[in-house]
Write a structure and sequence with these properties.
- By secondary structure, the protein is mainly alpha-helical.
- The chain folds into two domains: 104 residues, no CATH class; 105 residues, Homing Intron 3 (I-Ppo) Encoded Endonuclease, Chain A, CATH 3.90.75.
- The strands form two sheets. It has a three-stranded antiparallel sheet. Strands 4-5 form a two-stranded antiparallel sheet.
- Helix 6 packs across helix 7 and helix 9 crosses helix 10.
- The chain is flat.
- The protein starts with 6 loop residues before the first helix and ends with a helix.
């Protein structure tokens, strides 16, 4: 059934139009009359009945649709003295609006309204910490930590954890090359291999034969070069039946060797 706009509808649009954008007006209209009109429908009926917001050509382009000239002046002045949250509360209280701080923040950014604040401390500024200097608040005092104190959350040697990639890591007595600490966490499967066969050469990596990262035992590990590992992953090696995996490995090695020879030609 075709919807007919009554005089009450049109008068409502005429009254509310100067106070808000068409999108906001659509929401208010639907809430007031219990309708589900689209933004485009409200815009069309306003054009058909020549209902205008009266904010001038400079505002019709969408730059200042949310507020009246008086409200914009209030925002420009208040933003020099208040935060966005404080300004939103003051604006709503003064004009009976319900603008959120995020809406107001987007508005001032979109329209390049500046607060004048640089975010820097002025010359001669006295930091708040000056009033507590020497009171043991900002640095360790005699009751803070004692020599040899060990935090309660320190993990023991060979403690294990799961990293973000799903690999088991183990704490070992080896200097951390990134932090310089005496201990570090290392992937357990790599550590097990190195304990048995020495350091993993550059360009090589350790794979799980059955594809299960949790099955971290030496018999389930094998060393392949990185190109072979990539080819195995592409072929879905881990999901193949056990009887086909030797063939898959042979194909991967042959594929990599063929590519290396083609590049050398």
């Amino acid at each position: 059934m075709r919807f007919t706009y009554t005089e009450e509808h049109l008068n409502f649009l005429r009254k509310k139009c100067p106070e808000m954008s068409i999108r906001e007006l659509t929401d208010v209209f639907n809430a007031h009359f219990g309708t589900d009109k689209k933004y485009s429908a409200i815009r069309s009926v306003m054009q058909a009945y020549d209902i205008k917001n009266g904010r001038g050509t400079g505002y019709e382009k969408g730059k200042f649709q949310m507020f009246t000239k008086e409200q914009i002046a209030f925002i420009k002045d208040g933003y020099k003295r208040m935060t966005i949250r404080e300004l939103a509360e003051e604006l709503n209280t003064t004009y009976g609006l319900s603008v959120t701080h995020s809406q107001l923040n987007s508005f001032v950014k979109r329209n390049k309204i500046r607060s004048g604040r640089t975010g820097q401390f002025p010359k001669g500024h006295v930091p708040w910490s000056a009033s507590v200097a020497g009171k043991g608040i900002l640095k360790a005092n005699k009751t803070s930590f004692k020599k040899g104190n060990v935090p309660a959350n320190v993990r023991p040697m060979h403690a294990e954890r799961i990293n973000k990639d799903g690999f088991i890591e183990i704490k070992i007595d080896e200097p951390n090359p990134f932090t310089g600490h005496d201990t570090r966490f290392k992937c357990k499967h790599v550590w097990l291999w190195e304990q048995a066969y020495g350091a993993v050469p550059k360009g090589q990596c350790i794979r799980f034969k059955d594809g299960d990262k949790m099955n971290c035992v030496l018999g389930n590990l094998e060393m392949v070069n990185q190109q072979e590992n990539l080819q195995l992953n592409r072929m879905g090696h881990n999901s193949l039946p056990e009887e086909l995996k030797p063939s898959s490995m042979a194909i991967a090695k042959l594929t990599v060797k063929t590519r290396e020879r083609e590049k050398a030609v």
